[in-house]
Write a structure and sequence with these properties.
The protein is of the alpha+beta class. The chain has 3 domains: 5-129, Nucleoside Triphosphate Pyrophosphohydrolase (Alpha-Beta Complex); 136-162, no CATH class; 165-213, no CATH class. Helices cover 14% and strands 28% of the residues. It has helices at residues 111-129, 202-213; strands at residues 19-21, 33-39, 42-46, 57-58, 68-77, 80-87, 97-101, 140-142, 149-151, 157-158, 165-168, 171-172, 175-176, 192-195. A hairpin with a 5-residue loop joins strand 9 (149-151) and strand 10. The chain is globular and about 55 Å long. The two termini are 31 Å apart. The mean pLDDT is 90.
Length: 216
């Protein structure tokens, strides 16, 4: 069976019908639900648990009280509210928790849960970097029913940035050319990929990335 892009992790359509984004669902009055506790590129999970039980359920775990900022409700999964919080730098794993890298193949979670972790990471990053208007520097507030923020003074609407990128499959008969980074896990490889530069077409970006990464 041909793998569809709709089925890949980090794609909302991969769990359509099971997840409702925050801009399409009402935020609960209390902070109860699944807690996705993000720290940089990692997440804190419960030890000796499996599947969804690895993600704390209920109120924010007591061990993290006063250590989490940029808390945001980012949707509902199977009817349960999902909360994301950015754990302060330097906070170590409390008893009963383990800190794991958010990367495919390095974390024991289903595609659904891994996708939710990715959304949580994006939500906390946006929340942490959108407090102030990029035009005048004053405070912003959330736009109801949308993902954006609005400046209280100049009324400028600010939305999460999208960064166009290319990914290239280089074939040689029945072989493909793969790349890898020195810090990747053993046997992990990837395709040539990179971000599109200002004023660059997708085709030009693909050619540049090929030259820079593999020189062919």
């Amino acid at each position: 069976m041909l793998l569809s892009a709709d089925l890949l992790p980090f794609n909302l359509e991969s769990f359509q019908g099971r997840f409702v984004p925050a801009n399409q669902s009402a935020a609960p009055s209390d902070r109860e639900g699944r807690w996705f506790l993000i720290q940089d590129q990692s997440i804190f999970l419960l030890e000796r648990r499996a599947g969804a039980d690895r993600i704390p359920l209920g109120a924010i775990p007591e061990a993290f009280l006063g250590k989490v900022e940029s808390i945001v409700h980012f949707g509902q999964y199977l009817g349960v509210p999902c909360w994301a919080g950015s754990v302060e730098a330097g906070v170590e794993s409390p008893a009963g928790f383990v800190r794991e890298k958010l990367a495919p193949g390095q974390i024991a979670l289903s595609d659904d849960l891994l996708s939710l972790c990715g959304l949580a990471q994006q939500a906390t990053y946006w929340e942490a970097t959108s407090w102030h208007c990029p035009r005048c520097g004053k405070q912003t507030v959330a736009i109801k029913g949308e993902r954006g923020k609005r400046c209280l003074r100049c009324k400028y609407d600010h939305y999460p940035h999208l960064h166009p990128a290319v990914i290239v499959l280089i074939r040689d008969g029945d072989r493909v050319l793969l790349t890898r980074k020195s810090f990747w896990a053993k046997n992990r490889y990837g395709l040539v990929a990179g971000f599109v530069d200002i004023g660059e077409s997708l085709e030009a970006a693909a050619r540049r990335e090929i030259r820079e990464e593999v020189g062919v």
